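Example 4.3 (complexes with small molecules)
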Amino acid sequence: MRTIGHFIGGREVEGQSGRFADVFIPMTGEVGAKVALASAAEVRAAVENAKAAQPAWGATNPQRRARVLMKFLELVQRDFDSLAELLAREHGKTIPDARGDIQRGLEVVEFACGVPHLMKGEYTEGAGPGIDVYSMRQPLGVVAGITPFNFPAMIPMWKFAPAIACGNAFILKPSERDPSVPMRLAELMIEAGLPEGILNVVNGDKEAVDAILDDPDIMAVGFVGSSSIAEYIYSRGSSNGKRVQCFGGAKNHMIIMPDADLDQAVDALIGAGYGSAGERCMAISVAVPVGQVTAERLVEKLVPRVESLKIGPSTDTTADYGPLVTKAHLEKVKAYVELGIQEGAKLLVDGRNFTLQGYENGFYMGGCLFDHVTPGMRIYKEEIFGPVLSIVRAHNYEEALRLPSEHQYGNGVAIFTRDGDAARDFAAKVNVGMVGINVPIPVPIAYYTFGGWKRSGFGDLNQHGPDSIRFYTKTKTVTSRWPSGVKEGAEFVIPTMN
Ligand code: NAD
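Answer. The structure with nicotinamide-adenine-dinucleotide bound is encoded below.
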């Protein structure tokens, strides 16, 4: 059995705690590896390592730091196929979808390559008599990221690329369910020229997370995962004086206005609702048709599409989606479907008994579709995180606007319409952090920022884009007054950054 340790000081090291977790291959249901779960002492050792390495990296000029990321982009391109396969094997998503997971991470690495420009401060000449004022952004020191299972390449890159570009050392605690890709990314960063100790990976569970939250040398923590853990991490980390940003769960609605192109809306719902088996924080899990006629037409078109979804092993490049991540998660999703029936929702398509020939032990589930879901039901209020779509019928636009606005989660939302006025009004008024207009999954591109509202996000600054530079740096402002007069001789060689 393969064991996965930690990545500290530029190489993989064995776990010392004696505790391990199973890493499954969801498409077959087998255990593919055992991952070491770090003790508090192992986390501390990683932090010491990072702390020793950080000052030299922080003092390296930002162009050189960016060049490491540029080389890393090249190396990931070289290894793209093997990374996507490894990712699909441990997560369960299909290989084409795994490629997207990697690509959306690389786009943030590309953004972080602009760090020499992004970290520039401000300058005011003559703020007073003979006085100039300027500000500079400096790295925080050692920072950490705690990431979820569902994007094992993208989210680690969203965290470590801006942090490291800014001159910090980074401790990554990836999900214990699919740790191999994060380990491989750390190796590639070292191959790209990153000094040892600037990116350390500690695998683990609550013990490792708590050690990160309590460590006095970790200055900031970025978290992505479920909301209850996000809230816990936010409160414990911030009460220990750290900067903390935590992104949580979601219940993303898609409003279908009576004038929407219904074929387009159905395509969007199928892809955004069932892609990656619904295990995306930006998946659409609630469809809100506006008006009786829209609802009837939508249901008529949607049912056959859900019934004919192609579910296959992660290696089947023609499959719409693959297995869920673990047996425990599969059971949880099925339990929600049972709950929905008990709560009185109408199950139009039941995918619970789906099995795949030759892969009988894999964690598969067919698509499920509920109609007549109401805001009081738990299947509406809670995140299911599986291939289950709920239809909540709205009588009019105002009611449709109210549903996502009043929901406890506020990650993403979409409206499908041909009416620019309605779309504009919706975007302005809806109480949700990321909005799509005829776009079902409005994940902002890398140079904008990503973040949900309400119980989908704790803390003030978003992920990637300009907010990530603010999050991973502190601002120092200098006020200076100099006696006038030239002090130095002329310099004849053009100054360079080498
Ligand atoms: P999770 O909350 O179970 O785990 C996330 C991380 O927290 C992991 O690294 C895990 O080891 C750690 N963790 C788990 N339990 C812990 C505990 N009791 N104490 C301390 N740490 C603990 O989430 P998951 O199942 O890996 O990921 C799915 C969730 O992540 C969904 O809710 C999804 O919506 C959310 N998510 C949100 C975003 C976003 O940007 N808002 C993006 C992706 C996923």
